[in-house]
Amino acid sequence: MRLLHTSDWHLGRSFHRVGLLEAQTAFLDHLVATVHAHRVDAVLVAGDVYDRAVPPLPAVELFDTALHRLAEAGVPTIMISGNHDSARRLGVGAGLMERAGIHLRTDPAGIGTPVVLTDAHGDIALYGLPYLEPALVREQLGAEKAGHEAVLAAAMDRVRADLAGRPAGTRSVVLAHAFVAGGAPSDSERDITVGGVAAVPTGIFDGVDYVALGHLHGSQTLTPRVRYSGSPLAYSFSEADHRKTMWLVELGPTGPDGAITGAERLDCPVPRPLGRIRGRLDDLLADPALTPHEQSWVEATLTDPVRPAEPMARLTERFPHTLSLVFDPERTGDDPGASYAQRLRDRTDQQIAEDFVAHVRAGAALDGAERTVLYGAFDDVRVDTAEREVGR
Fold this sequence. Notes:
By secondary structure, the chain is α/β, with parallel strands linked by helices. The chain has helices spanning 21-37, 57-72, 87-90, 94-98, 134-141, 148-164, 281-286, 311-318, 340-344, 349-360, 368-390, and strands at residues 2-6, 14-15, 18-19, 42-46, 77-80, 102-105, 115-119, 122-129, 171-177, 210-214, 220-223, 226-228, 245-255, 258-267, 274-279, 297-302, 322-327. A six-stranded mixed β-sheet has the order 6-5-4-1-13-14. A six-stranded mixed β-sheet has the order 7-8-9-10-12-11, covered by helices on one side. The protein is globular.
């Protein structure tokens, strides 16, 4: 059986104020064409279908068109909600859609109820684990703690319990939307840290043949059976070096090394390449090595000691698709003249808050109890936002 693993469509998202609806339409055209060209047996979409809880109408229409085309192709589609989606909104009409082969898994109550497909080697049980906000699902799942690892472990207990009652040789696939340890994040993913911890171990998913992950935007292989497809389009300049793909995974009969008999990356269309250029403005405008970026979406980082006059106007004469301009003067990070952005680079919200507290207390760092209170405040804000999105 051939499974096409994709995720993080983020329909409705823009890229530095440039609308991506046309590029997202091209990707979905490519997805449907891939289904036909590679004789795909099922499509897996591991969350973040939309970019926000209440997506714009054009994004909803694009999603609706894509579902109709997949249903017409007669290819089952299993789809879960991600942390950007409103699970309740995405799940509207799920019962009716199931009759057309579109299986939406947005309710944690259905985690232990798989979509069962059959090939020449028997059954394959596909379990959808929507994004699980720990504080909202802990009691429902009977998790010991309100953390990502605890709720995912409880969810996987339900998966294994159901799988144990199925015929011997039944193969299993799990779709999940989470930050799994070993994965490399990008700037465009929303932080899901709980209590200072964001990642969960790959061992959470032991006992299944393939885990189709969503959330991180780079295509990654954590183990031969645990993979991120990544987003089909770049949503930040931190993804400039990404190769945007989908996974075509083949499942055969269960063997000593599992059921996966092949995994191939299939490239997605690139609307326009990304270019990150850095240097003094006059050098960037004259450097012949930068010619390939003249038609790219460009992020330019200027290192001039003094901000040059009209830098964006001058840059766009050579690089007309410049979207982001960053100033990073040639100073060290410890220089008191370093910019605010430089000093905060690569630091989480929690770390920035801790640094602020230490600063106003003349260098006295937080103790363990204070750090717990601070993390709890961040968690409360995130949960409140999630609850308001669920209720919209």
